Amino acid sequence: MNEDLNRDVAELWSILFDIVADGEKRLASHFEAHQLTPPQFYVLKTLSENTGECRIGEIARDHHLTSATMTGLVKRLEAMDPPLVRRRRNESDGRSVDVILTEAGQARFIAVQRGLMDQLRAVFGTLPEAQRRDIISQVRLYFTVFSQRFPVGNST
């Protein structure tokens, strides 16, 4: 096999691993500063992306958690002062529970996201626009090719 390709693959893997590990640490720090756990933040994110409302079972499936685990997460978000979410029975299916993002929950989500974006803006802002666009283009190309070649759930 091509030695240059092996070297480049090893270097890219190392960089990607460092990015993921660093990102996890930064996220954890931001979540902690806003009194959230990572799973709680992802519930808020899911709700925010779904116009502030979603069935609890759908959120659980999206995050590969059981409904019971998601119910516990939602209860803790609901018990916060002020509550970040509220629950109600689904009007069309009384067996289902909808989770609704409160104004406080939306504000908390935006505050965490803003902090993360401010850091990225501070770094990205040091680069010329052409270089920023090139980075975005290359990352997008890598992700597109990789996700098409190796879809989630397909480890071959």
Based on helices, strands and strand pairing, what is the structural class?
Answer: mainly alpha
The counted number of beta strands is 3
Round the Cα radius of gyration to an integer and report it.
19 Å
Q: Shape, please?
A: globular
Total DSSP helices: 6
CATH homology superfamily of the largest domain: Winged helix-like DNA-binding domain superfamily/Winged helix DNA-binding domain
Largest sheet: 3 strands, antiparallel
Number of domains: 2
Strand line-up of the largest beta sheet: 1-3-2
Folded structure, characterized:
- The protein is mainly alpha-helical and 156 residues long.
- The protein has two domains: 34-116, Winged helix-like DNA-binding domain superfamily/Winged helix DNA-binding domain (Arc Repressor Mutant, subunit A), CATH 1.10.10.10; 123-156.
- Helices cover 68% and strands 8% of the residues.
- It has six helices and three strands; from the N terminus they run H-H-E-H-H-E-E-H-H.
- Strands 1-3-2 form a three-stranded antiparallel β-sheet.
- A hairpin with a 7-residue loop joins strand 2 and strand 3.
- Helix 3 crosses helix 4 (67-79).
- The chain is globular, with a radius of gyration of 19 Å.
Could you list some keywords that capture this structure?
156 residues; mainly alpha; Arc Repressor Mutant, subunit A; 2 domains; three-stranded antiparallel beta sheet; 68% helix; globular
Q: What is the structure about, briefly put?
A:
The protein is mainly α and 156 residues long. The protein is built from 6 helices and 3 strands. It has a 3-stranded antiparallel beta sheet with strand order 1-3-2.
